[in-house]
Structures are given as structure tokens and as C-alpha cells.
Amino acid sequence: MKKKKYLAIGGACVVLTLGAFFSTQNKGKSDDNQNISKAAGAVTNVENTTSEGAAGSSNNGEATTEKSEGGEGSGEINDPETKEIATPNKKLTKYEKYKETLKGMGVVDLGDIDVEALYVHETMDKKSKTVGYIPHGGKMKILEKLDDNNWYKIKSGKIKGFVRSKYVLTGKKMKEAIVYNKDVIAHVEGENVGILGKANRDSTVVAIGYKEADYPIEAFSDNRKYAYVERTATITGWIPISKIKIQVTCPKAMDKEEFKEYQREYSEKEKKELESYLSISLQPTGNSLLDSIIKLVSHNESGNFKSARNPITGGEKTITVGAWQWYGENAHNILRQICNANRDKAAEIIESAFAGRRGRDKAEKLYEDILGSKNWVNEKRLFSNEELIAVKGLLGSDQGVKVQSSKIQSDIQAKVTVAIRTYNLSNDALVAYFCDLFWQNPAQARAVVDECIDHFGGARGFSRARNGLRYLHRKALNNHTFGRFTRRREYTYSYCQRLDEN
Questions:
Q1: Quick check: helix, strand or coil at residue 286?
Q2: Cβ neighbours, 10 Å, residue 377
Q3: Which residues are within 8 A (CB) of 69 and not within 5 positions of it... i.e. 6 or more apart?
Q4: What is the DSSP letter of 70?
Q5: Residue 357 in 3-state DSSP?
């Protein structure tokens, strides 16, 4: 649910199958698929400064895999920028009102754990009654830190209760998460407005922002006068903040029936978003098996070619980018290839993301860093909002899509080769299932397939067995790594069954 992607914490929650995962990331909103969280009463209008907080991605209270703490403190307590705007009798700008709504806000972060929501408990005991469910990315108002900060007392929507703090992002990480999850929205007021190529009024209009339309905000200009929005999967630019309302659309806590309805609507929305990205991005290779596996893994990895984010989990040190969530030096190599494909165009795209007197210097530094050889993981290279805008521009450009598509094809071809030549698998369904496992964890994929081959007395017997795919699926679910991704496994199994029937 990217994971954009997720399911429930604090106890066992039934998982609905529709596999997208986040281990990578997730999900863009086009202007045709806006604000499904409204069904759960999620929209917070920033003109009304009584927001309840926000959400990101987290784990289940019963989960065995530890996730990093979402940050210390509640919301904006230690945020100098927020302190500055809290001056009495000062009329707040629209951007300042937006910042005010983030005070005390927390966002659910379920990470890679295959659960859909954080349980809200009646007491500070994960065995106590569940009084509500907050989906991944859902928001809450943190009322109090308790039990040495292991628990938060919270309010979300109409529901009050207690949640495990380790599954809640606050402060800077929370702010990054709500933007990444596309839950900060520009609602166009009044008349149509020009979407600009740069963050200044003299810039060229690259598209029209339509009256009453909602567009995800990816960043704000340094002077806080412009918002960088995504109008469609291929059209982005700057809109004057004076022409919009800034809304935070994270879902709030729900009761059991509301949560079931939310899951259904979210799944439908997610499928439409993925189809829109795949339709503009992936071209057939002419190899039906390769094309099928590319579609499968693209579904499981989110498919957003313009995705780019700083670290979210504790193990990450630098940027993650692209349709298949390439991290670290893989991300660096992708961006380097995009720049080398057309250096003049790349420099132009990067420069358009920066404004102000030092804009050109910043653009040149980023360009040099991308073409350079420094290891971004070792350097712990983080990216400013302007730099992330530039990176997304590169990824979404014609050359960016071509480079990523080529990388996707070569990555999958390499995994197909391992399946066929190393393991002698001759069944398309087994090859496809193996490739998805191998993408997640090569070592564990090898271990699972080795066990299957031994069980059937060799690769030939495994490939010909009528229950070979079912056995592979069961072994994957029982694996300590793959078993955490139940929705991904179930979707992959269903997908590969169709290949087996053809």
C-alpha cells in the first residue's frame, strides 16, 4: 500500500491481497486519482489550523523486525522554523499556516512489514482492546509521551488511545514522509493558474493548473512563495502559493468497518496509479516471459519512474530513486547514466530546479556530484528539496525513462539467466516467481529454490511437477525473509498461476 504500501500493528490483522510493497516505495498521485483518504475523513484544510498531526510508514507492535525510531520529540517541538512563526499577533502566511498544522503531528511508518495499519490500543498494553486502526501514512496528534517514550497517547479523528512510538515518525522525518507519500496537496483556488518552469513570476508557463484541482506538492521554494507540484506523471512545475490552499490529506484513525472500506478504495486507487505509470514507461521487449516478469516486479516495486527520497529507515544512508527503488551507488549510477545520455539537457533540467542568487552554483555542484565518483553511501550524501526536484526531473525526462527501462530489462534478464542456466528451471511460472524472490534477496532465493529442487529430486522434476509452483510458494511463505511480505507473495503466486495456465 507502498508501500505507498501496508497492514496492522499490535496484533494479527488479516491481510488483503493486492501486492505493492514499499521496501521500496512508493506511489504517485495524478490529478485523476486524488485524495482517497477523504472517504476516511482525512483532509485537513490548512486554512483551518486545528490539524491533528500526520503519518509516515512503520511496523507492527508484534513485528519481530526492528525498525528505526521515527525521530525524537513530538512534531515540531524542536523545529526552529516553527518556533519562528509562533509569534503572537502575527498574521500567518499560507505556508506558515501549513507549518502550524504539523505541530505535535505523528505519522504511521510500517516500513517493510506486511501489515496495513497501526493498532490504537485502549491502554498501554498491546494485548488491550483495539479501539482504532491508523493506516500506513495516517496521522495523529501526539498528546503525551509515556513509559520512557515507548508509547504515545494520541488522538486521531474521533479516536483516542495509545500506540507504540517506534512505529511513528515525528519532526523532520514526518515532514519528509507526508511529502513522499503525496499527502501534501495544492488545491487551486479561484481561476486557472500557470504552472511555471522556475520558481519566479517571470518564468515560462509549462502547463495549466486547473481551478479546484488538487496536485501533490513535492517541495517549497526557499522563499516559501512557490510550491513544486506534480500535475501528471509527466508534468511538474511551480505554482505561486498565493493561488492555492495547502492541504494535508493523511488518513486518520478508523473503526474496523471504516478500515475495510479504506483498504478496498486504496487498492483500487493504487492499481490505477500503477497502470498510469506503466503505460507511459514500459515498452515490450519482444520476449513474452521477460515482459511478464518485468510487469510483475514493477507492480511489486511501485512503478513510479520519478520517485526519489532521502533515507527513511535506519539502515539507509543516502538516496533511493526510480521505478524499482534503486538505492545508494545503484541510484548514483542511474543518475550518472541519465546525465551522460544528454549532458546539455541534464544540465538544463538540474538548473531549472534551483532559484535565487546561488541557484546556478547549487545546480553546478549537483551536476558535478552526479558525474563524480564519490560513494554516496560512504559519504552519507543527503539531498536538499531543490536537489530532489532536480533528481526527479532527471528521472522523469525522456532520457531518464529510457535509462531506467534499459536497467530494468538488463536486471531481469540477468535473473532469468540465473533461473534457467544455473538452476535449469524450464517452467515459466517457476522462473517468474524465482526472479521476484531473487530481486528481494538473492541469497534467500537460492536457498528456497535449492530446497525445492532437492524435494522433487532435481530441477527437471521440479519444473514438471504439477504442484511445483504451490510448493515453491509455500516454502517462500515459510522463509524468515520472504514470509514477512505476505501480500507480495500472494500476488506473485496468483500472477504466476496465470503464466502456468498459458
A1: coil
A2: 16
A3: 165, 166, 314
A4: B
A5: coil
Cell of 213: 484541482
Strands (E), 81-138: 105-108, 116-121, 130-135
DSSP 414-436: HHHHIIIIIS----HHHHHHHHH
Residue 363 in contact with residue 390, Cβ under 8 Å?
Answer: yes
All cell numbers assigned to 115: 501489515
**C-alpha grid cell, residue 307:** 520517485
Q: What predicted TM-score, i.e. pTM, was given to this entire model?
A: 0.62
pLDDT at 58 over 50: no
For 280-368, list the strands marked E by DSSP.
Answer: 308-309, 320-321, 326-327
pLDDT for res 148 = 78
Q: CB neighbours of 14 closer than 8 A, spacing ≥ 6? A: none
Under the banding of pLDDT at 50, 70 and 90, the label for residue 359 is confident
Q: For the sheet containing 193-196, what is the strand order?
A: 44-45, 244-248, 184-188, 214-220, 226-230, 236-240, 193-196, 205-209
Answer yes or no: are the C-beta atoms of 290 and 414 closer than 8 Å: no
Q: What is the share, in percent, of the chain residues with pLDDT greater than 90?
A: 55
Burial class of residue 476, CB neighbours in 10 A (0-12, 13-18, 19+): buried
Phi/psi of residue 135, each to 5°?
Answer: -65, 165
Q: How far apart are CA 470 and CA 466, in angstroms?
A: 9
Q: Please, which residues have CB within 8 angstroms of residue 325's CB and are 6 or more apart in sequence?
A: 23, 24, 25, 26, 301, 302, 307
Residue 132 burial by Cβ neighbours in a 10 Å radius (0-12, 13-18, 19+): buried
Closest-CA residue to 263 (of 57, 1, 443): 1
d(CA 366, CA 348): 12
Q: How far apart are CA 36 and CA 250, in angstroms?
A: 10
Distance CA 412, CA 296 (A): 11
- Residue 332 CB: number of other CB atoms within 10 A? 24
pLDDT in tens, 261-301: 988 888 777 767 666 655 555 667 788 899 999 988 988 88
Cell 541510484 appears where? 331
Residues 6 or more apart whose CB falls under 8 angstroms from that of 294 comprise 282, 285, 408, 409, 412
| Helix, strand or coil, per DSSP, at residue 126 | coil
Q: Tell me which of 35-44, 316-325, 483-492 is least confident.
A: 35-44
